[in-house]
């Protein structure tokens, strides 16, 4: 791939010999899958909504995939200290913009999660997720030397994020952020009663959301009793998996994708199932699993608690987001509008995931080269 000598002391040379190239290759494989699935799913969606060009989604997403790849590699070049500073700036910037959606955001399906920008729509909470995971890791790591105040600060920031997400409302995003924070508390060695208390609080919040938020209640009811409401997309998705069988009907040959309003986004996994079959779906699942397990194994022997907590948070977030998307398409959990990392259409999502994975690659580079404040 790259003809770089181990004696090369340039920034690129040091990066190449210290970065986890297996994880990088797996991530770029997902980017490749994203491009293929975009070609398969988006033209039909563009035609159905009457877009001026059937290639509209393709052209946009190719740009975002290229941008995401550049962002991921650029951030992976950074020393750990710079990653921490970037996450801190990104967190407060994304938090302010996420809060701004409550007053000036675009309302879609009863939720205000997006801000209109020239030529695109931005979802700031997507960037809030990875940045919060790193900031929380920094505070929880600092708690070992500075005591309970750092832990209290991390909990305060989590409650602040949770409050904004609940107000939008975006319960799926809140579940992901809450799960990441609980995982980090557990790894940090926080008293188990506190971790259990967070779990109970999460369950009680879910119960409260069921009675307070009509759309949340509707999704739960339709999952438990499909006859209680509209299950059109899930029904079509399940038919797509069945139609695809083991090897699929072939690239571009799927017919059920034309009936799925979100075939290019939330239900892209169903398109993969119809056109490429169970074999490719299992391969996609295996790539996600490899990235998560490889990342966790990379932490074995790591002594820096910030790196352990930061990488754990980012990997938990990445794996959980993939699980929610695929499980929703397979009707294993209630449907949730959450993208499949690097594969679903969506500029904010793909760039935000690249931001998180770039920080992961930077933090898991071999300690041999972590000098000069890294």
Structural topology:
Layout: H1 11-18, H2 21-48, H3 56-76, H4 80-104, E1 106-108, E2 111-117, E3 120-122, H5 125-146, H6 148-167, H7 171-187, H8 192-212, H9 214-224, H10 232-244, H11 268-298, H12 305-329, H13 347-363
Antiparallel strand pairs: 1-2, 2-3
Give keywords.
EC 2.4.99.28, FtsW/RodA, mainly alpha, 3-stranded antiparallel β-sheet, 374 residues, 69% helix, disordered C terminus
Could you please describe the fold and organization of this structure?
The chain has helices spanning 11-18, 21-48, 56-76, 80-104, 125-146, 148-167, 171-187, 192-212, 214-224, 232-244, 268-298, 305-329, 347-363; strands at residues 106-108, 111-117, 120-122. With 374 residues, it is mainly α. Strand 2 and strand 3 (120-122) form a beta hairpin.
Number of strands: 3
The tally of domains stands at 1
Shape: globular
Strands side by side in the biggest sheet = 1-2-3
InterPro entries: FtsW/RodA
Membrane topology: Multi-pass membrane protein
Keywords: Cell shape, Glycosyltransferase, Membrane, Peptidoglycan synthesis, Transferase, Transmembrane, Transmembrane helix
Enzyme class: transferase
In short:
The chain has 13 helices and three strands, in the order ααααβββααααααααα. With 374 residues, it is mainly alpha-helical.
